[in-house]
Amino acid sequence: MSDPTPFALPRLYELVQRFAGRRILVLGDLMLDHYLWGRCDRISPEAPVPVVEVQRESSSLGGAGNVAANLVALGATPALVGVLGEDSRAQQLLDAFTARGVDTRLLVRDPSRPTTFKTRIIAQHQQVVRADWESRAEIEGVALEGVLAMLARELPACDGLIVSDYGKGVLTRAVLDRAISLARGRGIPIAVDPKESHIDAYTGVSILTPNQHEAGYVMGRRVVDEASLMEVGWGLQKRLDAECALVTRGADGMSLFEKSGRYTHLPTVAREVYDVTGAGDTVVSVVAVALAAGADYPEACYLANHAAGVVIREIGTASCSATQLRDSLASALS
């Protein structure tokens, strides 16, 4: 099936090839996603709740860690800066990083904080409940100073910056101000997967990648039609004086609002949707590394749209490899 877009396959292949060797600093909240898989065919006699008979369990990287794993899969090199506790779950997370080829030398340890850990119980491919272990208090003291020091040391040598904000306390205003100032001063593209509570700290970034609900919440208006989408998208871009805002819209694709006044809509490429967990991580990863590789904003977002279409076909936090991305592009443009 042909894809009615102005994007040329050789150019997109060239950009994907350039992902290799790009060093991207990933700053944000780290977490481990834990899954219990089973079946449910009865209700508990103790309370009106389903009983799930667990058949297997698995774990995967979440948050900024999943962003880093996506970059590795794409052939790029992440420089991951974040905070872990000193608990057993921190070791599980470190083991998961090692298994995915993510360098952990820039991580800061804080014994006063639990490592963020999320358990999802899934029965017959449906999520039943989620349990979270976490602290959302802002980092301070030695942990804060450690993160600031890592930014000052590592960011100048990077080709891009990703801010992965899940509201778990790592991205204080001091951290965000330092990171954005350092990157802007060196002309490093900044891609932000934002949290609503920090939105005004992202002023002047290259691109934000909120989903439709997040963008509407920030701008005080639900996106229900084309008119409200235009108001929210352009309003967000102008409010933050960002180079562009990319609003992800699930089955309705993505909408890109550029400071130049150009608007681009990208229809979804996904034919099947099983789980959107981690799709936002994939989008911001691909956008950032594509910009670092020389893509313009529509090209970067087109690549991200195809990568998102790959990951939402899998249950559980997933990533898209460079090979999978090329295959998706080929199926659309060949």
TrEMBL record:
MF annotations from Gene Ontology: heptose 7-phosphate kinase activity; heptose-1-phosphate adenylyltransferase activity; phosphotransferase activity, alcohol group as acceptor
Gene3D superfamilies: 3.40.1190.20
Keyword check for Methyltransferase: no
Residues covered by the Carbohydrate kinase PfkB domain: 23-322
Keywords: Kinase, Transferase
Gene Ontology CC, one term: cytosol
InterPro entries listed in its UniProt record: Carboh/pur_kinase_PfkB_CS, PfkB_dom, RfaE_dom_I, Ribokinase-like
Highest taxon, organism lineage: Bacteria
Cited Pfam families: PfkB
NCBIfam families, sorted: rfaE_dom_I
Protein name: D-glycero-beta-D-manno-heptose-7-phosphate kinase
Annotated organism of origin: Eiseniibacteriota bacterium
